[in-house]
Amino acid sequence: MVNTDRLHHVLSNPSEVHADDLPILETVIKEYPYFQAPRSVYLKGLHNAQSPSYNKELQVTAAHTADRAVLFDFITSDVFLQNRISEQIKAQQEQLENIEVVAEEIQIRTNDLNADTDFQKVTDVDLFEKKQPETTVDKKVLEFKKDEKYSFNQWLQLTSLKPIDRSNDLEPTTTSPPIEIDEEKLEKMRRIDEFLKAKPRITPRKSGIAELPQAYSTDGEKQLMTETLAKVYLAQKNYEKAIKSYEILILQHPEKSGFFADRIREIKNLQSNT
Can you say where the TPR repeats lie in this chain (predicted)? Predict the structure, then answer.
């Protein structure tokens, strides 16, 4: 049974949602799939908990949202992001307070002495399957900044979910205005894709400062290649574009070249295990 008092409280105060509220919100969403308020608060709760379901739920919420600009403003707002920081600080403090140091005498149990003998009885190595190294590179929650609307729109385009068509609903609904397409952004996206496919050779200046090729030289286009966009390609398992994106980021931010190089190695490791 849904706790209506708690439901009204978290809908009125989204900043106070926590993990215990997620089942309540999920129940309401299943019963009222087009009720936008609980969807938004549920999304915030998943973000606060750093849930692996967040990225998928963000796609679903976008599909149920007529104006995705409103959704983007919500997920990049201070109200949406502040709980995650406070919860992390609180968790770290509680972890330090709960650490107990117990000194006790170490005793060797006699039945442990037979462990080596029992292990040697298993001679068929084929019974064991090599455990593949686990990686959570593509399971991390995607974070977007206010100036990264391009990355957000690109990520939504890469998903298979489209806005929900409610024309067949039994109850009459108002028709949402068509979403305007920014032709300038689409042209920039096309040019970046062409650049990633061509992957021209980039030669550094004698001063040691790398120069991007002419096709990718304007400040506006440089800003489009963000770390978030590289994560978007990775989340969609577009490994080749993700690798090329991090290679461009190495040239743009040489001070972070070690970090980006590690990301490239992780992506290549993902490729070899898929």
Answer: 223-256
Whole-number Cα distances in Å, 235 to 8, 52, 140, 159, 188? 34, 12, 9, 10, 21
How does DSSP assign 156-188, residue by residue? HHHSS------TT-SS--PPPPPPPP-HHHHHH
User: Burial code of 54-73, b = ≥16 C-beta within 10 A, e = fewer?
Assistant: bbebbebbbbbbeebeebbe
36-48 vs 78-97: helix axis angle to the nearest 10? 40
How far apart are the C-alpha atoms of 3 and 75, rounded to whole Å? 26
Confirm whether pTM is higher than 0.70: no
Reading the chain (274 residues) residue by residue, the pLDDT tens digits are 678 888 888 888 888 888 888 998 889 888 888 888 888 888 888 888 888 888 788 778 777 776 677 777 777 776 565 544 445 445 545 655 565 555 555 455 555 545 555 555 555 555 555 555 544 444 566 666 665 655 666 666 655 445 545 555 545 445 445 445 556 666 666 677 666 666 555 554 544 444 444 444 444 444 456 788 888 888 888 888 889 888 888 888 888 888 989 999 999 988 888 7
Q: Hey, what long-range contacts does 217-221 have (CB within 8 A, 24 or more apart)?
A: 220/188, 221/188, 221/191, 221/192
Residue whose pair of structure tokens reads 């995650």 in the numeric block: 84
Q: What is the identity of the amino acid at 66?
A: A
CA distance 204 to 269: 28
**Domain residue ranges of the chain, discontinuous segments joined by +:** 1-99, 182-274
Q: In the 3-class helix/strand/coil scheme, how is 87-117 assigned residue by residue?
A: HHHHHHHHHHHCCCCCCCCCCCCHHHHHHHH
